[in-house]
């Protein structure tokens, strides 16, 4: 199997040192006490990325596990939950709430813009009896980055606990869990941190622990029960055997993160990328609130999206993301995310994209690649 050059909106390319870390000899993570310290230290380092001193846990399962676990652990029969929705992941949170007996109430935002704070404020003035709210920081299918700081601030004003999906923003955008008072903040290994898929990590605030401890009904299920993780370190007990190789890989990926100014790198690559896209005459999907981790580009008239991605893969060995749901066939998504947020990655994807668009008859107003290089200079 030939591995394509990944510029998808996650999973992202995995560096050699991360792959090698996963090849280390394995201990028994249940019995080896050193592993408990290793795991705990990694949790603390992840906490530094998302600026929290609260508890962090790494669970064995892809990002979706974290989303479901948060809803499973918080929701009781009949609980009203505010679902802040201006995208596919935003809306999807409501399904998890329903699965665990909750009643999602949707605050619908315009999908081409970040959540409008005064609209949310007006909504909350009329209705604010919610146990918790779900928010997506970067809704990856549309690339919209929501104003998380402001959203959390207003939710906290009404005493509403916050569950935040920051899976595709953590590491590439600022996330300040303690300052913004996020109760559960969710991330995953395969996005900006550029480790392979398989792990989800999350912060859990004191309020979040209390919500779980004060439930009237027990949490349904085991794998999605966050409460069983509370005293793993003191008890030297993991709910299930930890995937030690995945965690070794994530540890190296996190060290890579701290070896440079990763957020700054994402800012520079993303802004140069967007500028060259727009100045070439292409259009970005959202009107504002761009995430520095992904660019979502509208397919120009006369361009066949399927053929475009097929040619990128077959002729350039380059894999980018298409879209699903309401955006299917209408946009392409390029993840300048993690290892994708490098000058050479940006150059290669723009060069290949330009060639394939021109072959299908698109005439760029400015060369995508030349412009990208000039902006970076
Ligand atoms: C990637 C991602 C997840 C994890 O889900 P998968 O689609 O299974 O990778 C969750 N939330 C957001 C916003 C994501 O970008």
Protein described:
With 377 residues, this protein is an alpha/beta fold. It folds into two domains: 5-9 and 260-376, Aspartate Aminotransferase, domain 1; 16-258, 3-Layer(aba) Sandwich (Aspartate Aminotransferase, domain 2), CATH 3.40.640.10. Helices cover 40% and strands 15% of the residues. It contains 13 helices and 13 strands. The strands form four sheets. Strands 2-10-9-8-5-3-4 form a seven-stranded mixed sheet, sandwiched between helices. Strands 1-12 form a two-stranded parallel ribbon. Strands 6-7 form a two-stranded antiparallel sheet. Strand 3, helix 4 and strand 4 form a beta-alpha-beta unit. The protein binds pyridoxal-5'-phosphate. The site of pyridoxal-5'-phosphate has 12 residues, from helix 3.
């Amino acid at each position: 199997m030939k591995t394509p050059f990944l510029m998808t909106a996650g999973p992202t390319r995995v560096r050699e040192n991360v792959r090698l870390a996963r090849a280390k000899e394995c201990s028994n993570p249940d019995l080896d006490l050193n592993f408990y310290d290793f795991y705990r230290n990694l949790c603390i380092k992840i906490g530094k990325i998302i600026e929290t001193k609260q508890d962090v846990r790494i669970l064995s399962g892809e990002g979706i596990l974290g989303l479901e676990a948060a809803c499973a652990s918080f929701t009781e029969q009949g609980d009203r939950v505010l679902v802040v929705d201006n995208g596919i992941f935003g809306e999807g949170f409501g399904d998890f709430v329903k699965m665990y007996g909750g009643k999602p109430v949707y605050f619908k935002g315009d999908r081409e813009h970040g959540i409008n704070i005064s609209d949310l404020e007006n909504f909350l003035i009329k209705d604010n009896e919610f146990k918790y709210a779900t928010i997506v920081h970067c809704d990856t299918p549309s690339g919209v980055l929501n104003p998380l700081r402001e959203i959390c601030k207003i939710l906290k004003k009404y005493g509403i606990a916050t569950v935040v999906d920051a899976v595709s923003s953590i590491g590439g955008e600022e996330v300040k869990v303690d300052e913004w008072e996020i109760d559960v903040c969710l991330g995953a290994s395969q996005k900006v941190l550029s480790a392979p898929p398989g792990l989800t990590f999350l912060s859990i605030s004191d309020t979040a622990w209390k919500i779980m401890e004060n439930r009237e009904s027990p949490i349904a299920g085991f794998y999605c029960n966050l409460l069983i993780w509370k005293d793993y370190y003191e008890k030297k007990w993991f709910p299930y055997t930890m995937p030690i190789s995945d965690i070794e890989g994530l540890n190296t990926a996190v060290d890579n993160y701290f070896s440079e100014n990763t957020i700054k790198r994402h800012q520079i690559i993303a802004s140069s990328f967007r500028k060259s896209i727009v100045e070439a005459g292409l259009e970005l999907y959202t009107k504002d609130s761009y995430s520095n981790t992904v660019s979502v580009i509208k397919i120009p008239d006369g361009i066949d999206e399927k053929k475009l991605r097929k040619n990128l893969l077959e002729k350039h060995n380059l894999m980018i993301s298409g879209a699903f749901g309401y955006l299917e066939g209408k946009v392409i998504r390029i993840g300048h995310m993690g290892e994708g947020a490098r000058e050479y990655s940006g150059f290669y994807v723009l060069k290949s994209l330009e060639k394939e668009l021109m072959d299908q008859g698109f005439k760029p107003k400015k060369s995508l690649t030349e412009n990208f290089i000039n902006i970076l200079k």
